[in-house]
Structures are given as C-alpha cells and as structure tokens.
Amino acid sequence: MDFLWQDFTHAPFWLAALKIIFVNVILSGDNAVVIAMACLTLPPKQRLWGMVLGAGVAVLLRVIFTLVIAQAMAYPFLKLVGGALLFYVATKLVTEDADGDDDGVEGAQTLWRAVRIVAIADIVMSLDNVIAIAATAEIAAAQVDAIHAGSIKTTLIIFGLATSVPLIVAGSAILMALLERFRVLVWGGGALLGWVAGDVMVSDPALVGWFSESVLHQLHVWGGPVGGLIVMALGYLIVSRHRKLKLDEILAGVALVIWIIVDRISERLIGSADAEALKIWGVRGALVVVLIIVYAICRNVWHIEEQEA
Q1: Which residues, 6 or more positions from 123, have their beta carbon under 8 angstroms from its beta carbon?
Q2: What's the mean pLDDT in 272-297?
Q3: What's the CA gap between 179 and 173, in Å, rounded?
Q4: Is the pLDDT of residue 8 over 60?
Q5: 112-116, 156-160, 191-195, 262-266, range with the lowest pLDDT
Q6: How far is CA 44 from CA 36, 96, 105, 114, in A?
Q7: What residue spans define the domains of the chain?
Q8: Tens-digit pLDDT profile for residues 45-69
C-alpha cells in the first residue's frame, strides 16, 4: 500500500479528488432538495442531525452503488420500480402538512423517518449519477497511477464522495431556510423529484422491447414533464381533501405548466443539439427569473388584499 501514500502526497491525486467532489456536488442538487424537504418538518434541534445523517446516507449509498452495483441499471424493470418509489416520496413530501397537524409524532421517530425518505429517494436518483462518478474516477485514476489504477479508483471514489458531505449539508441548510419561508419551493421541489422520477422510468431497458423508436423518443421528451405534473396533481388531490389550497401551492402548479410550455417551445425552436444546449439553458434561466418576479408580485398583491379585508 506504499504506492497509495506516495500518490496521496502528489498533486495529481488531489486534482483527481477535486474532480470527483465537483461531479458529486453537481449531481447532488436533487439530493440537497430531498434532504431539505425531509428535514423541514423536524424540530429545530434535530434539523442539523437530519441534514448530517441524510447527507451521510446519500454519500454512503452512492459509494456502494458506484463500487458494487453500477451495472444494476441495465436490469429491466429496476428503473420502473425506482421511479414509482420516487413518485411516492415526492408526493409524501409535498403533502406533509396537508392536515396542518404535526402533533403526536415524536422527535426521534420523525428524525429517522426523514432519514428513510432521503435513503429511498437517493437509491433511485443515485442509479444514474454513479455512472458519471465512476467514469470520472476511472479516467482520473489512470492519470494518477496507471499501474495501480484499480486501487486508486476505489480510493478516489470513497475519498471524493466522503469529503462532499459538508457541501451537501451546507446546500441542504440553505434550501431548508428557503423552503421554510416560501412554501411554493416545497411544491417546486416535489415537481422536480417527479420530473426525475419520470425521466428514470422512461429510461428503463424494459421499454425498448415494448415500443418503437419514435414512441421511445416521445417518452424521453415528455417523461420528465409528465412526472412533475403527476406529483402536482396527486398533491392537489390529497391536500384539497383536508383543506383549501394556498396561493403558494397554486402558483407552483402554474409555474410548472409555464416552465413545461416554454421548455418545449425553446427546444423546438432552438434545437436539442449539444452545441445549442447553452442557449436552451439560457432560456430556462430567464424563465426562472420571470417566474420569481411574478411570484413576488402575486404574494405582494395577495398580502395587500388580506390586510384590506
């Protein structure tokens, strides 16, 4: 194991580790959303533990998937089942306060329930992410030490993912503060998880033998948007049975519909080639800014009407 120590003290190893950390942080945006939403209903004293344990579970599962079962994605029906689980998680998160009653749930039970939610969601979302992480580690390991690339790859994956925990926790803390203040973001996060679930399900290998290429293409185009709409629809249905929908919740659904319309139009007009991807994301970024402005105006008008009443 002397070679590990030698490589550990050289700059190429740290550059490779930084690549793994960067890739994991970029791919952990969904995980930060899940952790923040799952910990939102915890008592303030337990939120830090919820974020730390949630991030730890997310990283541990990602290490296991990357090292052991990255090839599991090739198995038919796995993504269909995983997507269905993620739909369940997303719907539970957006309807957490449907009855407005959080009493009767002990803190410890709530904490571990939050960790379970993070674990289930991360199992599904990590299936796609591990390929990028494993590929990055494999290329970087060969550059660091071609002779011992296998051992270096394993070390880089464990080290890089483990050191990402503080960054994921920090991102979750920021998101949770925003989610607590702006309820619309909770529904936006649920729609995002539904979008991911739809994308995961339509990429299942089992579908290849069921549909033609043209139908599969349409499934890939519309899987994510339809997944987001399903979560919103189920959330509205469940919440409306307990109480009247709030303005933030309605605005979240409107924002999702506008996002889908603009997203589809932008891809049709600009094209979906890789060279044009930056333009498409530019349109999406502008859309986010517009939606935020509209949301702020609607909230302001709503509060003025409430005060006058």
Answers
A1: 61, 82, 85
A2: 61
A3: 10
A4: no
A5: 156-160
A6: 13, 17, 14, 14
A7: 2-240
A8: 787 787 788 777 777 777 777 666 5
Alpha carbons 19 and 156: distance in angstroms, whole number = 10
Task: Provide the pLDDT for residue 105.
Answer: 38
CA distances from 305 to 108, 249, 251, 299, 309 (A): 41, 18, 17, 10, 6
Rounded CA-CA distance 218/302 in Å is 39
Q: What is the CA radius of gyration of the chain?
A: 21
Q: Which DSSP letter does residue 75 get?
A: S
Q: Tell me the whole-structure pTM to 2 decimals.
A: 0.63
Residues 6+ apart with CB under 8 A from 42: 50, 107, 110, 111, 114
Per 3-state DSSP, the chain is made up of helix, strand and coil in percentages (nearest 5) of 85, 0, 15
Q: Exposure of 56 by Cβ count < 10 A (0-12 exposed, 13-18 middle, 19+ buried)?
A: middle
Give the whole-angstrom CA distance, residue 140 versus residue 151: 12
